[in-house]
Write a structure and sequence with these properties.
By secondary structure, the protein is an all-alpha fold. It is built from 20 helices and four strands. Helix 5 packs parallel to helix 7 and helix 10 runs parallel beside helix 14. It is globular and about 80 Å long. The two termini are about 15 Å apart.
């Protein structure tokens, strides 16, 4: 009985739902690539190996062979050599940075004759494996300085190398692993700080040119936001709602006094008023810390000071750190510039293509915008606009819904793992797929800046398809051999 049970554990069934989704997506992606690369004047078969669809078919075959091989490898192999694989991946990134040719401004491709592959794509599952191995160490606790520094380095070091390769989009994908850390015990306040930083950056950039007295409108808005963030932190972490109300009352009374002063014909600089209110709130938090000796008040104080410093550094970071094309992409995404002939051209043409599809689309191979090649990169990063034009809102919605169901299903599989290694790796897979989906579609419809990441399993590209395949099927293999309780 015992041996029989062990045999059952080793031969657990594969999750065929995930396999079905995978096959459905790569086939739909294959047809979409053919539609996006279809030439009206020189039409070729979808099986023509010289065309984009034909080349993708070769990569699909290679990916299926790799997937089959992965399902035959014992899962202890991945855990045993996870850190070695990660080290090899880092080495490949460094070598690529040195010897790779410049392709479209990026030095991230190994070129071996007719074959090109991008090591940065494979680092996604290598980072997931490394994190899984580290979290699975005996008595590992995330919230210690040593361990937090370790996992942060595992994520940020390859991201830094990839940024040096001018692949900012891929580097941002690596940062999505913070969701894994959150699942494994990272305090929610870290995510709050990240979202706060994004909000401050967006407001600071978008309204930087609008003057409001001593400061810009962006700085004024950010000072108000910092006060509100302080209120939220006091309410959520100190658990003293009355103190939060007092902070609101203090800052509100300062603005009220300024407004009443303006009724007597005295000119009031509300940006200066916001600064006075913020300084008053900071001194109040200092008073609370000195009185109650609660460390939470100290952290809130540090958050406020950091937020002020961050706000004042936004202009420098935007103008002197980011490259001109990156600045323009952010401006276009925030509605500050149109630049339909430059950085905004991709998004502008993509919106036209998707909008022209209407409710039900123009039909397969009948898209005019995509067939006339108005949309750049329409079979890679902008593959979704082909779907939108040919299948309309209904078809696009079906694709998005299918992806969401798939990602939720992967999260369910991750949660049912009986080992830390399996659970951490599973949530790593979920994080990467979710980030790619949200950013790619947001990029195509103009909600986020163009950062050049593919739609998983849909976009043309062997490295991308093979990378996602390896990542997914390692997870399915881990799930197959998990201990059945």
């Amino acid at each position: 009985m015992y041996q029989a049970n062990n045999e059952k554990i080793e031969k657990g069934s594969i999750d065929w739902i995930s396999v079905g989704f995978y096959l459905l997506f790569i086939i739909m992606g294959w047809f979409s690539i053919y539609a996006a690369s279809f030439d009206l004047d020189n039409a070729t078969s979808i099986f023509d190996l010289s065309g984009r669809a034909g080349k993708q078919l070769i990569w699909m075959g290679a990916s299926l062979i790799v997937a089959f091989a992965i399902m035959k490898i014992d899962t202890s192999f991945y855990e045993t050599y996870a850190l070695l694989f990660y080290s090899i991946g880092i080495l490949l990134l460094l070598i690529t940075l040195v010897i790779a040719p410049d392709i479209n401004g990026s030095r991230s491709w190994f070129v071996l004759g007719p074959i090109r592959f991008q090591p940065a794509e494979f680092m996604k599952f290598l980072i997931a494996l490394a994190l899984s191995r580290i979290f699975n160490m005996f008595n590992f606790k995330l919230m210690t300085t040593k361990n937090l520094l370790l996992v942060s380095t595992v994520i940020l070091f390859p991201a830094l190398i990839v940024i040096m390769q001018s692949e900012t989009g891929t580097a941002l994908v690596y940062l999505s692993f913070i969701l894994v850390l959150y699942r494994e015990g990272l305090p929610g306040v870290i995510l709050f700080i990240g979202l706060a930083a994004i909000a401050l950056f967006v407001m600071g950039v978008k309204f930087s040119a609008d003057l409001m007295g001593m400061f810009s409108l962006g700085e004024f808005i950010n000072m108000i936001l910092i006060i509100l963030f302080i209120v939220v932190l006091i309410w959520a972490y100190v658990r003293r709602w009355r103190t939060a109300v007092y902070v609101l009352g203090l800052s509100g009374s300062i603005f009220l006094a300024a407004f009443l002063t303006s009724l007597f014909g005295i000119k009031v600089d509300y940006s200066l008023v916001a600064l006075i209110a913020l300084i008053s709130v900071i001194f109040y938090v200092i008073y609370l810390f000195l009185r109650y000796r609660l460390r939470d008040y100290l952290w809130i104080l540090l958050f406020a000071l950091f937020s002020i410093a961050f706000t004042e550094s936004i202009e420098f970071a935007f103008n002197d750190v980011l490259q001109p094309h990156q600045q323009m992409r952010i401006k276009v995404a925030l509605g500050m510039e149109e630049d339909l002939q430059g950085s905004g051209y991709h998004v502008g043409q993509s919106k036209i293509a998707i909008g022209s599809g209407g409710l039900s689309g123009k039909g397969y191979l009948n898209g005019t915008q995509t067939k006339l090649k108005y949309v750049p990169e329409q079979d890679t990063d902008f593959i979704f606009c082909t779907i939108g034009e040919e299948f309309g809102f209904i078809g696009s919605s079906v694709i998005v819904i299918l992806f969401l169901i798939f990602i939720i299903h992967l999260a369910t599989i991750a949660e049912r793992q009986t080992t830390i290694f399996g659970r951490v790796y599973g949530y790593g897979v979920v994080s990467v797929f979710a980030f790619h989906l949200l950013v790619n579609i947001g990029m195509v419809i103009g909600l986020v800046p163009v950062i050049g990441i593919p739609l998983p399993l849909f976009s043309y590209g062997g490295s991308s398809l093979l990378g996602f395949t390896i990542m997914l099927f390692i997870f399915l293999r881990i799930d197959q051999t998990r201990r059945r309780l």
